[in-house]
Design a protein that fits this description.
By secondary structure, the chain is α+β, with helices and mostly antiparallel strands. The chain contains 13 helices and ten strands. The two termini are 41 Å apart.
């Protein structure tokens, strides 16, 4: 590590995972700018009975809650930022999540279109602030902190909605997979107590914080300068998961592919549901690998085995391979330039296949996808890798230059099974086999979308310096 970061100036969720069981995300609109500024100032200082905004400084003992706050472009305007200053911000952030161009880029169309979003998120102009509270495991603490915040909203902020999340056992998500295994190692970030190592390059600080060098050279910055260091962006997403449809997909299409339902689940994700990567455990899930191994793998090697250029073990179109191609040959820059920090938790009741839901149940994943450029990270990954198969370069396995055994270019089809639009008329997923031009591949088609976007916002996490600046804009 070479970069020194002032952790006391960085909002904590950007660089630290809080490892708690409960969260609540408030969707807010500013009704009185000066009073809202005073409220933000009180959060920064932890005065007026309010919880203090959490920084990246390690806190011991653990506080009763963690609090972070982020603003949309409309929210920055409501607090007094000028139109000219906003033009210096990330292009995606300026557009906002409800913008038609944005929605088309990231696949928020059809049932996922912004017009269908919940909790006031469909009206991007009214969404100004997202304030998030995380607590360990006591619902009473969450309610107490929420009551304090809601009392402070009076006269300056209107609550459009609040959205709760609750961790599932063993860090799983509703589709049954162990989550939060692979996170980028950020240069200068505080060491994580339970960090899972890998052999991927350390990601430059500037990919996640403004004001530091990024992978492509230079730095991301904005105006005014008070907002231009130690700040970050995020895509806030509420993703509803149709677990019943996913289990039906596995049952039906595993028969089509001639493999078990659990192997198909591993193939479409790239990991078995216990978290082991199929690259390291191609035949069965086994027991959960130790931290030193579970995220330590590549797709390309100079010899066979372990090379998997063709995706014979881990399909090229699998979820984890699309969202982090690691050392795979892809169009444009490599994966280091497009990494994302995920801070998301499940919401809704656990799914029990032995007890059918009495009525449609809302369950899914909610949280932040953090980066220093929404345009070059979140939107790039979603639009170029999750929604396209053409990003994969032609590549053959070692010792097979003429492609007799196959070519990576022919071994991927369709969109991400989880994050793609996946209209039954065009959806497809390829299971690769040895054979020139993909002639022996198995491709499953005709499945529907199983994850629906029900809410989203593009937000800016100011540094603590930036928060103080914004708090005072309309109070001067």
């Amino acid at each position: 590590m070479s970069t020194t970061i002032d952790f006391s100036d960085v909002q904590g969720t950007i660089l630290r995972g809080y490892r708690v069981d409960l969260a609540r995300h408030f969707i807010l609109t500013v009704t009185n700018g000066p009073k809202a500024g005073a409220f933000i100032e009180a959060l920064v200082d932890g005065t007026d009975g309010l919880p203090r905004i959490t920084t990246a400084v390690h806190i011991k003992p653990k506080p009763e809650c963690f609090v972070n706050v982020a603003f949309t472009a409309a929210g920055l305007t409501a607090l007094g930022l000028s139109d000219q200053e906003l033009t210096t911000f990330d292009a995606g952030f300026q557009r906002g999540a409800t913008n038609a161009t944005t929605a088309g880029k990231v696949g928020d169309t059809g049932s996922s279109a912004p017009a269908n979003w919940v909790g006031g998120l469909s009206n991007g102009a009214a969404v100004h602030i997202i304030l998030s509270v995380w607590v360990d495991d006591d619902p009473a603490v969450l309610e107490k902190v929420s009551a304090t915040l809601r009392a402070a909203f009076a006269g300056c902020i209107t609550e459009l909605s609040a959205h709760d999340a609750k961790a599932l056992p063993d860090n799983h998500v509703h589709f049954g997979y162990r989550d939060n295994i692979a996170q980028p190692t950020v240069d200068g970030a505080p060491p994580r107590k339970r960090q899972i190592p890998d052999d991927q390059p350390v990601v430059p600080t500037g990919e996640f914080l403004l004001g530091y060098d990024k992978a492509g050279g230079g730095q991301y910055s904005v105006q005014p300068s008070q907002l231009s260091k130690n700040s970050s962006y995020a895509a806030f997403r509420i993703l509803e998961q149709d677990v019943v449809a996913f289990e039906q997909f596995l049952d039906a299409y595993s028969k089509t592919a001639g493999i078990s339902a659990e192997l198909l689940a591993a193939k479409v994700c790239g990991r078995w549901r216990n978290g082991n990567p199929i690259e390291l455990q191609p035949d069965d899930p086994g027991t959960f690998l130790p931290p030193s191994e579970v995220n330590n793998f590549k797709y390309v090697a100079p010899q066979l085995p372990p090379d998997d250029t063709l995706g014979l073990k881990c399909p090229i179109g699998s979820h984890i391979r699309r969202n982090n191609p690691r050392d795979m040959a892809v169009i444009g820059t490599d994966s280091v330039h497009h990494r994302i920090v995920r801070r998301a938790m499940p919401y809704g009741p656990s799914y029990d296949p032995s007890v059918p839901d009495p009525a449609p149940v809302k369950r899914g994943l909610i949280g932040y996808f953090i980066n220093a450029s929404i345009f070059n990270q979140f939107e790039f990954v979603q639009s170029q890798w999750s929604l396209r198969s053409s990003f994969v370069k032609a590549a053959t396995a070692p010792g097979d230059p003429d492609g007799t055994n196959g070519n990576a270019y022919f071994n991927i089809s369709g969109q991400d099974v989880f994050l793609g639009v996946n209209d039954p008329k065009s959806s497809s997923f390829t299971l690769a086999a040895i054979g020139q031009g993909g002639t022996n591949n198995t491709t499953i088609t005709g499945f529907s979308r199983m994850i629906t976007t029900v809410g989203a916002a593009y937000v800016f996490f100011p540094s603590m310096t930036g928060l103080r600046y914004l708090a005072g804009l309309l109070q001067r």
